[in-house]
Specification:
The complex is a heterodimer of chains A (154) and B (712).
Chain A: H1 2-21, E1 32-37, E2 43-45, E3 52-57, E4 62-71, E5 91-96, E6 102-107, E7 119-129, E8 134-144
Parallel strand pairs in A: 2-8
Antiparallel strand pairs in A: 1-3, 3-6, 4-5, 4-7, 7-8
Chain B: H1 2-16, E1 32-33, E2 52-55, H2 57-62, H3 68-72, E3 78-83, E4 87-92, E5 100-104, E6 107-108, E7 129-134, H4 138-141, E8 148-153, E9 162-172, E10 177-188, E11 191-202, E12 211-214, E13 217-220, E14 231-244, E15 247-261, E16 288-304, E17 307-323, E18 342-361, E19 364-380, E20 389-404, E21 408-423, E22 426-427, H5 429-437, H6 442-448, E23 450-452, E24 455-470, E25 476-487, H7 491-495, E26 497-500, E27 505-508, E28 516-529, E29 532-555, E30 563-584, E31 589-602, E32 616-624, E33 628-637, E34 653-666, E35 669-678, E36 703-711
Helix pairs in contact in B: 5-6
The chains are: A mainly beta (154), B mainly beta (712).
Chain lengths: 154, 712
């Protein structure tokens, strides 16, 4: 008899847990960054605008994206290799894309300063959605006075 | 997805329960007794009706891994949060870090518990008995014991007078571990003294893969060994004990040193050039973490006037440092003259004192006590994560145990704690210059230049617990306990503000946080019989203000960081159960099953919590007696789809392990050899709780371990 009561209580507790679990999750799916340009290993011309092109998408609603540059001179950390004429280039800016489920981004807003020290850099791209889910990727790029595509290519 | 998974897990747990009626027992070698120890020992005064698991000497030796948390990861409801193959931290029912108290001989272990990248700072060779209390025990320990407690206690002095000792050696194939421990003790009259020294070195650990994919980049793993995950541990411990008449006292000193390298691919942006083989499996290069924990403690105990008076006091000095080649994003910042490559350092000093008096008659027992603790934390290094802080806490408590008749007992108590946290302000001139250079206006610069705002906060809170045990008959017992726990916000939750390389995101504290509060309801049913045992312990907890890192959607101004993760309180639910079952089989075989499941949910954000342990089960078949034992094990872990924002699901895995222990008597000495094989098939899998999980690094492959102990 006593055991029966116990199993009944247990069945009740398990049902309660099951019901607690049955509430629906809110969005925890990260947005997707499909970066077309610049590609990994690309050379970007100092003093010019970067041809930046990507597709962003989310299962619900995008919020913002951010692009940052910083040097990768020692292949590990970020020692300043700057001499007197040039400085290690840093860039950090975010754009609002809120309300959209997907968007194609194409601009030349990122200008590499004319006094940027040439060399290897990291370009980081972050994207968040309205719920705080985040996607992140990194590209190795080289800043140089020669080569690289011109701003007016497209 | 969670909706589908939870009933499946419940069904799995329940599906096994009918077998219980068949009649069986715990696996002798896997001796995990689900017993409540009723106020028999002093110190923690474990008089609550919470589920308790005791890991004795036999269990700790048979499943020895060199790290205590990993061994305890076998206990139902306990998991280990691994940092590579060398160190780990315990997680009880989905709660870890500052929510689990680890106490050693009555002294609460205080380090930088919030950090995921260092281990427990306790010598695994020297541990003789561990009691794991599952559930909120802030009634016994004050703040921090929300999830449970791991109590490490010293065995009693030997009965025989004389000198005795132990030499232990261990070797492990997966990371080339070589370790050893020497212990010498002497007993004469009422005096007893013991000294132990242990050392362990391990190399880069082997993983069953040639490449990993992290942040859309394919990174090579040269020689299938994870570069720079080698490490070392050195521990020394000594104590003097005196036991006579009604007096028992001891003085103890210990020091634990740990150093472990970080996989460079997981420290900052992954870069293939940093992963090339350096040809040395044993070296620890930068980046690495180093921890030193010094502990001095004493216990004074007196039985007089029908009562037992106890006083525990201790000093702990915990130094934790992260070293990484000097790097900065701020043009003006120069390497410090002293220790130019020390990125972060924390030195935490703790003084603690705990006094109690216990008295009673048969069937009625009372305990009253007073705890106090002071902490001073000083920081250094060229990077910033946490400011200097001081913290004071003090609490008064009263506990009772009443027995009514043969079958029924009630226990519980209440406690009130006061706490004060003072956080020092910290200014970052380099960040201000960096932001100025980037064109921020002065108002913004003024806001961001303070990496920590000075704050002084006072907290006060009540903990309580009430429970009952009903011995249904000689074989069955049922326990129920309801408890309220609380936790003061840690200094990191109030004032951290920086990019932590271990986490690689901008973590920010909130100085206005209030204390964390939760209620937990525990049930546990055990049935013991000849050749049979069964236990089932469901639990459910509700938190009003569960503090954890929440993605804010605000971009950080700091370089190398995406959005800011800020500590915030949320309404949270934890629920789950552990089930264990043991039975004797014909031919001297024994079967033992343990299964566990934890469900977590942030009710405000409507998502699960991060680091929720996946459902898992262990099936152990063992055979043998006192001289020789062996076992084979099938461990299955379900896919974890209950993930927080920005946390990846982790696929499940089926792993097979085996082990054998043989004992030999040679004159007056006793030799014990334990051989164990982990992940026999070298399965490639991920541990959802691992430090390296987010970098997609698989867990170690096949591991052969041998431990030899000779005692005299």
């Amino acid at each position: 008899m006593k055991t029966k009561t116990f199993w009944r209580c247990l069945a009740f507790a398990v049902t309660a847990l099951f019901l607690a679990a049955a509430c629906e999750d809110s969005d925890n799916v990260s947005p997707v960054i499909d970066l077309e340009e610049p590609a990994d290993g690309d050379t970007l011309r100092i003093g010019a605008g970067v041809h930046f092109e990507m597709d962003l998408s989310d299962n619900e609603a995008l919020k913002s994206y951010r692009v940052a540059f910083h040097d990768n001179f020692d292949g590990h950390g970020h020692d300043s290799r700057a001499d007197e004429e040039t400085i290690s280039f840093t860039y950090d800016r975010s754009w609002d894309v809120s309300g959209k489920k997907s968007t194609h981004v194409h601009h030349h807003d990122i200008i590499i300063a004319a006094n940027a020290t040439p060399g290897p850099y990291h370009m980081e791209v972050y994207c968040t959605d309205a719920s705080g889910n985040e996607a992140y990727l990194v590209r190795d790029v080289v800043l140089s006075h020669e080569g690289g595509e011109d701003d007016d290519e497209d | 997805m969670v909706v589908g998974f939870f009933p499946t897990a419940c069904a799995c747990l329940l599906a096994v329960s009918p077998v219980a009626d068949g009649g069986c027992d715990t696996t002798g070698s896997v001796r995990l007794e689900g017993v409540v120890v009723r106020g028999a020992t002093s110190g923690s005064g474990r008089s609550l009706a919470l589920p308790v698991e005791v890991a004795g000497r036999g269990f700790l030796r048979e499943f020895f891994t060199g790290d205590l948390s990993r061994t305890l990861g076998r206990v139902a409801g306990v998991r280990s949060m691994d940092i590579g193959s060398g160190f780990a931290k315990p997680v009880i029912r989905g709660m870890g870090f500052n929510r689990v108290v680890v106490s050693e001989n009555g002294i609460k272990q205080e380090g930088q518990q919030w950090g995921a990248d260092h281990g427990l700072e306790i010598d695994a060779f020297g541990v003789e008995r561990v009691t794991v209390v599952k559930g909120p025990v802030s009634l016994l320990y004050g703040s921090d014991a929300m999830g449970g407690a791991v109590e490490i206690s010293r065995g009693l002095p030997p009965a025989k007078e004389g000198i005795y000792g132990e030499v232990a050696m261990m070797a492990k194939s997966v990371n080339g571990t070589l370790g050893g421990s020497v212990m010498v003790g002497a007993k004469r009259g009422s005096w007893f003294t013991r000294f132990r020294y242990s050392e362990r070195h391990f190399g880069d650990y082997r993983v069953p893969t040639d490449t990993i994919v992290y942040l859309t980049r394919r990174l090579p793993i040269h020689g299938r060994a994870l570069k720079n995950t080698a490490g070392a541990e050195r521990d020394a411990e000594g104590h003097v004990e005196y036991l006579s008449g009604g007096y028992h006292g001891w003085l103890a000193a210990s020091n634990a040193y740990q150093k472990v390298g970080f996989f460079p691919g997981a420290h900052g942006i992954p870069d293939a050039s940093r992963l090339t083989d350096d040809g040395n499996r044993w070296n620890v290069e930068m980046p690495y973490s180093v921890v030193n924990h010094l502990k001095l403690s004493t216990r004074q105990q007196l039985a007089r006037w029908g009562a037992l008076f106890s006083w525990d006091a201790g000093y702990q000095g915990n130094r934790r440092e992260e070293w990484s080649l000097f790097h900065t994003h701020y043009g003006g910042q120069q390497p410090p003259e002293r220790f130019p490559d020390r990125e972060l350092s924390f030195f935490l000093e703790t003084l603690s004192s705990s006094a109690s008096a216990r008295w009673g008659t048969e069937g009625r027992e009372w305990t009253v006590g007073w705890d106090a603790q002071g902490q001073w934390n000083r920081v250094g290094g060229y990077a910033f994560l946490l400011p200097d802080y001081d913290r004071w806490t003090t609490g008064l408590f009263a506990l009772f145990t009443f027995r009514v008749g043969e079958r029924f007992s009630a226990s519980g108590g209440a406690r009130y704690d006061r706490g004060r946290v003072s956080v020092a302000a910290s200014e970052d001139v380099y960040l201000a210059d960096y932001l100025r250079g980037r064109g921020y206006d002065e108002a913004e610069i003024e806001y961001y230049r303070w990496r920590a705002y000075g704050a002084r906060r006072h907290f006060g809170d009540v903990s309580a617990s009430f429970g009952a045990e009903w011995r249904v008959d000689e074989r069955q017992s049922l326990r129920i306990n309801a408890g309220r726990g609380f936790r003061l916000p840690g200094a990191h939750e109030l004032a951290s503000n920086g990019v932590h390389h271990g986490a690689f995101r901008h973590e920010q504290g909130d100085p206005s946080l209030s204390s964390e509060r939760g209620w937990q309801l525990d049930l546990s049913y055990t049935r013991e019989g000849a050749g049979f045992s069964f236990s089932f312990s469901p639990f459910c907890s509700f938190f009003r203000n569960y503090i954890y890192l929440i993605p804010t959607g605000e971009w950080s101004v700091l370089p190398h960081a995406g959005q800011i993760y800020r500590y915030a309180g949320a309404r949270v639910v934890f629920a789950g159960a552990e089930l264990s079952l043991g039975m004797d089989l014909p031919g001297g075989f024994r079967y033992h099953f343990t299964g566990e499941y934890v469900y977590t949910r942030n009710r405000d954000a409507r998502v699960p919590l991060s680091f929720s342990p996946p459902a898992s089960a262990r099936n152990v078949l063992s055979w043998g007696g006192a001289r020789f034992r062996c076992h084979a094990e099938w461990q299955c872990t379900a896919t974890q789809r209950q993930v927080a924002r920005n946390e990846d699901p982790t696929p499940g895995a089926n792993l097979f392990h085996a082990g054998a222990t043989g004992t030999l008597s040679l004159g007056g000495a006793r030799a014990e050899v334990t051989l164990s094989l982990q992940n026999l098939l070298g399965t490639r899998y991920h541990n959802h709780l691992s430090f390296y999980r987010k970098v997609e690094i698989p867990e170690p492959g096949c591991d052969i371990q041998m431990v030899i102990r000779v005692s005299f």
